[in-house]
Each structure stands twice: as C-alpha cells, then as structure tokens.
Design a protein that fits this description.
Length: 443
C-alpha cells in the first residue's frame, strides 16, 4: 500500500502569552489568510503568572509560505510559537532571538526542582552558563547538574548514553527531575532517549542549537542512538515538554552545519510544500547569509510542516515516514563513510537527489523537479552525489537493515506528481532502484 502525502495549507495558531489584545508588529496579507508575528514583549507579557501559553484566538491562522517576505530590515526581536498537537502530550515550539534571556519561558516547563542539562564539549563553553542562569534566575530552589559529553555522531552510542545515566544516578535524581538537551541533534536524540528510559521516563526539554535540530530533530519525539550496523536503530518515541529555539545560537554555528540543516528544510518543500520550496529558491542567499528573519521564517515553516505530520501520525504508521525522503540512501552514506565523516544533512542531500532521480526514472515526476532539486541543493553548498567509496553493494548491504524494510520489502519515499507530492511505497520497479544505484556509484 502506498501512502501519499499532498500539500496542504497549514492552520497554525500563533499564540501569545499575553491575555490582552495585541497589536502585531508585523502583519502581511496572503492569498490564504494572514500571518501575525508577535513581538517579544507581547510574547512574554505575563511570564510566570501565566500557567501555560494562552491562545491568542484572534485568528486560527492559515499560513502561506509564498506570501512571506524577507523583511528589508529584520526585526531581531520577533517571536513565534508553533504547537505540536498531540492531545495530552501537546507542546509548544518557541522560536525567536534572545529566548534564552527569558527565564520564565523555560522555567514554566521545568517540573520538580532538579534539572540535568545534557550537552557537549563544544556547546558547554558557549551556552551552558546562559542556560543555567535561565533555569535558576529568580528561582534559587532549582538546582542544575550538567553532563558534558564528547562531541560527535560517533559518540551517539550506548557507552556515551551511560554517562548520562551515571550522572543522574550518582547525583540521585528522582522521578520529579527534568532533563534538558542543549545542543544539536546528537545531544537531543541521546538526551531524549535517556529521559525516556531513566526511571521509565522523566520530563524533558529541548534547546536545539543547530539548524538541523531546530527544524527537525528536536520536534516530534524521535529519540535514540546508533548501532555499529545502522543509524538510530535503538530508541524510543518520547515527546518533550517544550522546544525552545533561540535563533541567536545559530550565530556560532559553522557554515557547513548550517547547510546541513538546510537540507532538511528543502525536504519539507519537496515532500509537501511547493510554495515553501519556491520561497526557498528565492531566499536561499538570505538564509546562507543568516538573515535573521529569513532564518526564523524557514524554521517556523519547517516546524509547522513537521508538527502537522507528527500530529497526524506520531508513531510513524505511514505518513510520518515521508519525512525520511532521501534518508534510506543518506543513512547508507553516513554508515558507509563512517559516522561523523559526512554530516547528516549532507548525506540526506545526496540521498534526496538519488530518490528524486529514481522517481524520475519511474516516470513519476517531471524532469524539471529533478533539475530544481539539484539547483537548490547546489545553491546551498550541499553535495549532490554520494562519496566515491559508496559502491552498489555497500548501499544494498546497509539498506537491508533500514527501518523501512518490512517483510523483506524495502519501502521508499519517492516523489510522485507535481512538486510537493510524495509517496511511501514498496510498489515500484526494482530496476529503477538498481539503475539509480549504478548511476551514482562507480562500482
Ligand atoms: N530525532 C529526529 O527526528 C532526528 C531528525 C533529524 C536528525 N536527527 C539526528 O540528528 C543528528 C544530527 O544533528 P546535528 O546536525 O544537529 O548534528 P550535531 O548534534 O552533531 O551538531 C553539529 C555540530 O555543531 C556543534 N554545535 C551545535 N550547536 C552549535 C552552536 N550553536 N554553535 C557552534 N557549534 C554548535 C555540535 O557540537 C556539533 O559539533 C543525527 O544524529 C541525526 O540522526 C534526528
Ligand atoms: Zn534527517
């Protein structure tokens, strides 16, 4: 059975913490509705007095990506909230600059009085103090422990995970503690898995600091670690209390990591949001130049797309798998090249090109989509072919343990129809897969 994903305009309720009516600092009309972006002063108007985010019901807002301009003079103090709607496990994603300077925002989601911040050797000198201050400011009863892990995908394993449990047990954390993931996707995935498993589940907050983590890995509750034979094979679905995206943290992110995150942003356009893809084609230079409003918009739109998919299919019975466009090939590249050699987004970029190539060979998409995919990824300085060491056999061996193999049948996410449409299916001509592998491998 193939599961199809079609583009949809999203209903996104931006909401403010203020009970009073709000004059938006920016609003712009679109063909489908209008978007209000709230200023930070609106965003945190009542702080801790407000037990939880109060919806600003003026508009359940439809967002049209193509209508969103990159503002001439970006207002760096603009914030947005995207909801992940999962019933009792729903949570907000706060997006904006300077959010780590808003202690109330973080503290309202801390349960209990004890916090364990999980981070790494690169991020701790940059942001650990700031986060500790945000967690404790005005609230001396909160105590913060931290565990600083080695940095790198190659450490996303059981041995490193044990360091988190060691710290939690040595410092006698109990069920009422909160784990905070401070870092990129590696830290988020490991900390989330540790939170899911420690005492069978403790509270958990995501503070993503890479674009990859902001637009993808911190949202949706997939957590886990790698096994030497395959990526992310051990893990759990576990949702955080909130995701706090302080876009200022991107200022220290290396260019290569920024580009890696852009690969996942492009993915949303390809699989379900043609208007966003078009916006990206126009605004890629602004993203690469780290224009704050372009970045905020791309993060918001990506989170909205992911949140909608996750709320429809939290445990990946079908639709959610479409978020893995290019990932079967990409994971093979990451595993084949050795963890940490190719960045996740780089591998996904080359993997998406392969998936798009295969979709083209099957006659499911127009050649122009293939061309536009290559162009946009090249514009973002991302690779469009796998490394030379990837042979057809290497791909086939790694693909065999992919999580999307069911009853021996490899299901793939492939594009089908106009831009922004894809299917998750095992029903395709095997020759097309072989042809794609041969076209992209030297042997
Ligand atoms: N759970 C999910 O749904 C999901 C989705 C996508 C990716 N992932 C996982 O995410 C991981 C990749 O995440 P990533 O790309 O964030 O890699 P990463 O976590 O390794 O971070 C990349 C590098 O940037 C450094 N860094 C992080 N923030 C920084 C900052 N603000 N300034 C300077 N340096 C900073 C990190 O220390 C690291 O060296 C992979 O393991 C992938 O499997 C998970
Ligand atoms: Zn990914």
């Amino acid at each position: 059975m193939a599961i199809a994903s079609s583009p949809s305009s999203l209903h996104s309720s931006l909401h403010s913490h203020s009970k009073t009516s709000i004059t938006p600092r920016h609003s712009f009309s679109s063909s489908q509705g209008f978007v209000k972006i709230l200023s930070r002063s609106d965003f945190c108007a009542v702080g801790r007095v407000c037990a939880g985010p109060l919806r600003f019901h003026a508009n359940p807002i439809k967002v049209s990506a193509s209508a969103a301009p990159v503002m001439d003079k970006p207002d760096s103090r603009v914030s947005t909230v995207v909801d992940v709607d999962l019933g009792t496990r729903s949570y907000p994603i706060y997006i904006g600059p300077g959010l780590l300077d808003e202690p109330d925002l973080l503290q309202r989601h801390v349960h209990g009085k004890r916090v364990l911040v999980v981070t790494n050797t690169t991020i701790s000198p940059l942001y650990l103090d700031k986060v500790t201050k945000a967690l404790t400011h005005g609230n001396e009863s909160i105590s913060v422990e931290s565990v600083i892990l080695p940095d790198g995908e190659q450490y996303k394993n059981m041995e490193t995970l044990m360091k988190v449990f060691d710290k939690a047990i040595e410092t006698r954390l109990d069920r009422r503690c909160t784990f905070v993931a401070l870092g990129g996707g590696v830290i988020g995935d490991m900390c989330g898995f540790a939170a899911a498993a420690f005492l069978r589940g403790v509270n958990f907050i995501q503070i993503p600091t890479t674009l990859m983590a902001m637009v993808d890995s911190s949202v949706g509750g997939k957590t886990g670690i790698n096994h030497p034979l395959g990526k992310n094979l051990i893990g759990a679905f576990y949702q955080p209390q909130c995701v706090l995206v302080d876009t200022d943290t991107l200022n220290t992110l290396p260019d290569r990591e920024l580009a890696s995150g852009i690969a996942e942003v492009v993915k949303y356009g390809l699989i379900r949001d043609a208007a966003f893809f078009e916006w990206l084609e126009k605004n890629m230079p602004a993203l690469l130049a780290r224009d704050p409003s372009a970045l905020s918009y791309a993060i918001k739109r990506s989170c909205e797309n992911k949140a909608e998919v996750v709320s429809l299919d939290e445990k990946e019975s079908g639709l959610r798998a479409t978020l893995n466009l290019g990932h079967t090939f990409g994971h093979a590249i990451e595993t084949g090249a050795g963890y940490g050699q190719w960045l996740h987004g780089e591998a996904v970029a080359a993997g998406m090109v392969m998936a798009v190539d295969m979709s083209c060979r099957l006659g499911w998409i127009d050649e122009t989509i293939r061309k536009r995919t290559l162009d946009i990824l090249q514009q973002a300085n991302l690779p469009i072919t796998p490394p030379n060491m990837m042979t057809v056999d290497k791909f086939k061996n790694t693909i065999a343990v992919d999580k999307k193999v069911a009853d021996g049948l490899l299901r793939l996410i492939l594009l089908k129809g106009p831009l922004g449409n894809c299917v998750f299916t095992g029903d395709y001509d095997r020759n097309a897969l072989d042809e794609t592998l041969r076209a992209f491998c030297k042997s």
